[in-house]
Batch of 3 targets.
Target 1
Amino acid sequence: MPAMVKLNLFFILVFLSVVANAQTDRKPAISLGPELNVPQRSGYTIGYGASANFELPVAASVNLMVAAGYHRYNHKNFGFNNYIKPGPDYFTPLKAGVKYYPDAKLYLAGELGTVFNNKNNSGSTSNLFAYSLGTGFLLPVNSEKTNHVDIGLRFENWSQNRLRQFAIRVAYRFHL
């Protein structure tokens, strides 16, 4: 089946899911918060940044989501006397994915997207393919249970193991 036909079928299914969901009381949500990134087998130290997520309910326990962030990574010091440590690298990930809620407070998530390397140590820019898998839970912060603290942990891989990392995110989530 050609790729364009598959893409069209995907969008038709998403549209039908959204229309079918219009009869439920679930609402779209936005979450904003800081992230701590722990690279694995990399030339980077701990990274940090912030991200925003938008969730759109499409089924009883499934949300489509879009995520954007901004992250900074410092290079490790390799201990050479004459080694000049390069400046930090900045990344902007843009991803889309699915969140599945087996319980009202627990979720599993998967995302695909691109990461823009805004400035690396050579001054050039590049785009990287990214995917992530994670889990998290929601802690209600008001009596109506419409606002939550979203605590998540995920594993990410950027462009064929260029950067593999675990990320911890603590965000404030609210319904629109």
Note: The radius of gyration is 18 Å.
Target 2
Amino acid sequence: MRPRTLILIFLAILLPTTVLAQRFFLREIMIIPVRPIDTDTFEVIENDGAGGTQMWCAAGKYVRDYQRQRGGSITVLTPRASSVAYPGRKSVMFTTKPVENSISSTSQGVRTAGQTFSTTHANALCRSRHDFYIKVRVLVP
């Protein structure tokens, strides 16, 4: 075989393998602590650079997996502020109770009290194009 053919075969085998390896190692696992306050209210604590999308995702996972609710809404009770459980860190208080003057929104921010997503919408944010995995760690109150 000619050297040029060998190089092309080598590249044809190597390039797809390299792309797959990068995709595997670029996945990030983000663990976001959640602290239950009462049966309906909980605090999601920022961790690993989590933003609004990840906070909503963690809230949705908590409601689905730990509160065992399949429908309903999640509302920002207290917007992003200093954490009650962890001084020096930021958190958001969410509730599944109906909140007066709540607003339905498509914005993924967590800086507006009363902002409401359906549980389904919050969980849908976990399946984004960013390719990271979000795990919820429930803290004992």
Note: The radius of gyration is 20 Å.
Target 3
Amino acid sequence: MKRALLVSAMVAGAFVVAVPAAAEPAVDADRYRTDGGGYAFLYRYDGGKRVCTIASDPTTVRCGISAPAGTRITAKNRTVRPEAVEVTDRGWRYLDTLTVQERPRELPAGARLSVHGASCTALSDGGLECSVDSAGFTQDDGRFSTRGRKLG
């Protein structure tokens, strides 16, 4: 009986710990809608603001990032350090640059924007976590990490 209670308490404790991580407050997506029908926002990281866009058909997240030191891609026959990442339901890839015409609003720390099956959360200490299905990335605390398949 004591063993069963201990296991039940451990399971309940694990459940309670897991709930807050998925409970970031969702924001009203319409506040981030652009004139072109997509969505755009700013997030804080490493002392500055970076921009992200979310488009539909197919759902695509593009964000300015700080790529890991030594990361290089070939763009227009030049080898450059990527300044952005693109995520779709198929996977992720680096981009050489990201240009946005709109003046987006900042996504508040701790808030989550979810549209078209994409979800991005501004982390409370600066940084961002975004995903489309199982593909995504996290920019946090001096690190950039990805999930899912790397696309060509």
Note: The CA atoms of residues 43 and 107 lie 6 Å apart.
